[in-house]
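Hi R.,

Here's the chain you asked about this morning:
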Amino acid sequence: MSHISSFPLPARLFRKSINFAFKRFFSEYIVVGRENIPVNTPIIFAPNHINALMDALAVHSIAPPKLPVIFLARSDTFQNKTIAKFLHQLDMLPAFRMRDGIKNLGKNNEIFQLCVEVLHHNKAIGIMPEGNQGEERRLRPFSKGIFRIAFAAQQKYGTQPAVKIMPIGIDFGDFVKYGKHVIINIGKPIEISDYFISYVENPAAATNQIRDHLSSDLSKLTVNLDTETHYHCFETALDVVNTEILKIFQLPFNTVARFEARQKTANMLLSIEKNDLKKINHLDLLCTEYTSCVQKLNLKTWTLEQAPYNSTRLIFDALLLFTTSAFFILGFIFNVLPFLLPIVIRKALKVEYSGFFMSIHFVFGLFTFPVFYVVQSVIICSVLNAPWWTGLLLLTGQYAFGKYALRWYREAKRLMAKVRYHHHERNNSDTLKHVQLLRKKIIQLIIN
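And the predicted structure, written out as tokens:
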């Protein structure tokens, strides 16, 4: 027990290094509501679960520096010995489900009791209340384990404030690609003591009450597309109408505001689905046709929003990219092997569920990038007979060139998209005209 509730220096340094890499995995690492995290009290972090290990790492990244967080994860994640060792280093413990076999469910009693003891030491645990992972941006039904642990730990304190559940909403710009944003929204703590008397009188009713409280809070911290039949329509609509919502609500054009605009749009769509079946079905047809046309043109919504494009500006941007291409080439050479190797490993492991892709790329990237940077620095210094300090510059330079190469590559892709639009426009494309009309209809249907 002592090694779980303690947080020795080596463990803190290990988490610092993981947090350092985690924050740099994304183009933007954004935390909202950090002031809501209480101190010197038992905490249960309860994030939404959409991206495997990355969800747990997101919680680790916002935990106070000296606060260990013991996470419960699916037991089948621990089947591979190498992965299991890494997870144990992150203070992650297996939780067993019915699908793992009835005989294994009894092991949860020991794990849950350990979690209670951790909380009694004013430490923190992390539990995904949904119990399983899904790639769709919506909350799934909650399992009872988190509430069972919370009430068991609160029994020591009775009606005195103590154990708290912290709702954490995590939003990834992309579930697979490197270099997108991550937003971590920290909600207000839910005080378990507020439900303790109800729990003593009727455990089932109290559990349902606190479950609804947590579900409501998490819904406000995420983009919750809570629809059974129109999910793909909702996704398309969020993309199409996002900029217009920013303008209507006079929000700034930044990542957090775009997230808030998606939340507002999600609420509008759910209201339409609930109150106007004919309208939502019409919207579904428009979104399906819009998606088909955009794919046919090989464009994105942002290219339609920013059009038209000036030929002179496109030529200038192309020349600018050409003149800086040498830096891209250097960044590509230094980083292509450590970048691609985790993908090769993932394919070799035959991991087919895309919800695990980012986690695998991140974990193996923790090793491939430092190893390749060191090896490449040694080789270059040896060939050029350069002094040792040159190797240190190369270590940091390879990373900087890699970041620049990724940015250059994305700017080149954006330029090509603008050129494609310009080409379709000059050719007087009927499909382009139609997709712009569809976009206007979708916006009008949602906003009006």
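The mean pLDDT is 91.

Let me know if you need anything else.
M.
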